[in-house]
Specification:
Layout lengths: L7 E8 L2 H16 L6 E6 L3 E4 L16 E3 L6 E4 L3 E7 L9 H17 L6 E3 L2 E7 L5 E12 L2 E9 L19 E2 L11 H11 L3
Parallel strand pairs: 1-2, 3-4, 9-11
Antiparallel strand pairs: 2-6, 3-5, 6-10, 7-8, 8-9, 9-10
Helix pairs in contact: 2-3
Length: 209
């Protein structure tokens, strides 16, 4: 089997406007489909925003804190993005890989698990819940990473987010992914002093793509 070229990794400094990020991804997906661009993994931070996936319910948006709310074509429900959270947009051509959406999501989850294990964080997959979970205070399960993907003619976009040191109060504005009985945490809350750059570097080392 011929090895595929590694995707181009891009780190965008500063806080990236979400609408601009959507437009960039839309263009790159089109170029990848047309074989005019290589695959891309794009690491960014956003200013505080909420995004609504295709399964979002209005009652799950509790308080916007005055932040913008974006409708998006990715799967899933409401999520929050903001400073201190590493967002990784993954644009791959599954025509070249395996046309299996469940396998792709599982690969993203295992990628995060392997990366966080480097920082002595034991994240887990949970049946019926997309994303990664850790044991927080009083052994309560808390979400540390989210996944929301969109696939257009077998080219992936959107991706994953890892809570490094965001303002966790802002997550109180939503019922994250429609699940109210569990909390949200971050590496900082778990006592892990890691920078976004360190998390990104470890993701790149562990990349399955």
């Amino acid at each position: 089997m011929i090895a595929l070229p590694s995707p181009l990794w891009i780190h965008e400094p500063g806080l990236i406007n979400y609408q601009e990020a959507l437009e960039f991804m839309e263009n790159q997906v089109r170029y990848i489909r047309q074989k005019k661009s290589q695959e891309i993994i794009w690491c960014v931070e956003h200013p505080p925003i909420f995004t609504a996936g295709t399964s979002s319910k209005a009652e799950h948006l509790l308080d916007t804190f005055g932040f913008p709310v974006y409708q998006t074509g990715r799967g899933g429900q409401y999520t929050y993005h903001g400073p201190g959270q590493l967002v990784v947009y993954v644009m791959l051509d599954l025509e070249k890989r395996k046309k299996d959406i469940r396998l792709y999501i599982n690969t993203l989850e295992k990628w995060i698990i392997k990366t966080l294990s480097h920082f002595n964080v034991e994240a887990e997959q949970k049946e019926g819940r997309v994303g990664l979970w850790v044991k927080g205070e009083n052994d309560r399960e808390e979400k540390i990473a989210a996944i929301g993907v969109r696939i257009t003619k077998w080219v992936t976009w959107h991706g994953l987010s890892i809570n490094v040191c965001p303002n966790l109060i802002h997550f109180q504005g939503i019922i994250p992914c429609g699940i109210s009985e569990y909390g949200v945490t971050s590496l900082e809350k778990l006592g892990i002093k890691a920078t976004l750059a360190e998390i990104q570097a470890q993701l790149k080392r562990n990349s399955p793509f």
